[in-house]
Amino acid sequence: MTPRKIQTGIHWVGAIDWDRRLFDDLIPLPDGTSYNAYLIEGSEKTALIDTVDPTMSHVLLNHLDHLGAERIDYVIANHAEQDHSGTLPQILNRYPTAQVVATPKCKGMLADLGLAPPDQVLAVDDGATLSLGGRTLEFIHAPWVHWPETMLTYLREDKILFPCDFFGSHLASTDLYAADEGQVYQAAKRYYAEIMMPFRRIIQKHLKRLESYEIALIAPSHGPMYSRPEFILEAYRDWVLGDPKNVVVLPYISMHGSTRMMVNHLVDALVERGVTVKLFNVAVTDIGELAMALVDAATIVIGSPTVSTGAHPNVVYATYLANALRPKAKFASIIGSYGWGGKMVEQITGLIPNLKVELLDPVIVRGHPTDKDLAALDKLAADIAEKHSTLSLAEE
Ligand code: FEO
Questions:
Q1: Measured in angstroms, how far is the CA atom of residue 221 from the centroid of ligand 1?
Q2: b or e along 146-171 (b: 16 or more beta carbons within 10 Å of the residue's beta carbon)?
């Protein structure tokens, strides 16, 4: 692929990673991803905004060759993580007089990661500006989207926001702009759920601050750009600030069918009471799908058999992730079956200190559920429906 012109003097020079299927050896990438970088030419200086994952450094260097970029004055490092700053060494090797521009914290992290020597990094304060000649870059510190050192770059005259990971999506596409908003919405929601949701509270402040900027284009460093910025800003406001939905997320495992029987019964009982259920068999589920469902569910119910004395290890993993992602759920419960004993409830409740939830009475049964156990599940469904009725709920 060749560089893509955004407007005169502004080019996309990133790399599309069609084949990548896992990020951080953790996050599934069903649609691949991209590492976007942007070359901005002023009348006096040239800046490169972000680089690319080091596995694709040759793509960025080829783009710069193609554009005949003989000189780069500034390399803006919005974020130290290697998928954006990992090609800094090759860029600085080719353009040895270039200065890296970063937050003071990022400067330290770039040194720690061996990506840029401190004497080649200009640390900029929040709100600082840099003139390229006819074009002005403004740096907006935005810690915790999703590392502590991050910043956004705003190109004043062109009203373009370069927010790096913020508003991004793991989506490999030849579309420079979000043409299929339905597809991009799903990819961006998955990205938010996996990467940004734990920082929901601080992101609220960043969203508020951006209201004072006139933004014509959002150019993130993953996925397509947004020529209709309100599309992604509105989606973020909903995910971050919106009310939860009348939804139960139910990750579960069943080894011999008892827990599955309980899950089936609870699902039917909830649906009868008008509650939507999103069910995930965590033996096989894509954890990104589970994370997306957690963005707006009002309740989480964990379903597990007992293995030895605790929950099934896959359920422990899903519970740990849910706790780490800090979703906005208000209620939680646990259902499952045991053979001869165990401490599953204590174990699972101990795994979710970050969830600000009210725990509804768990239903834990010995062996196959009896009629009495099924009645307890009916009561749990009724309790959930009643609790949801007390909330201000968002439309599904
Ligand atoms: Fe896309 Fe946090 O790196």
A1: 8
A2: bbebbbbbbbeebebbbbbbbbbbbb
d(CA 135, CA 63): 22
| pLDDT grade for 301, boundaries at 50, 70 and 90 | very high
Q: Is the CB of 73 under 6 A from ligand 1?
A: no
11 lines ligand 1 (CB under 6 A): no
The verdict on residue 395 lying in a domain is no
Give yes or no for residue 20 CB within 6 A of ligand 1.
no
67 domain-assigned? yes
Instruction: Give residue-wise pLDDT tens across range 53-111.
Output: 999 999 999 999 999 999 999 999 999 999 999 999 999 999 999 999 999 999 999 99
CATH number at residue 351: 3.40.50.360
Please work out whether the CB of residue 165 comes within 6 Å of at least one atom of ligand 1: yes
Domain ranges, residue 337: 245-388
Residues 179 and 286 placed together within one structural domain of the fold:
no
Last residue of a domain, one of 241, 259, 286: 241
Residues 190 and 253 in one domain: no
Cα distance between residue 336 and residue 340, in whole Å = 13
Residue nearest ligand 1's atom 1 by CA: 165
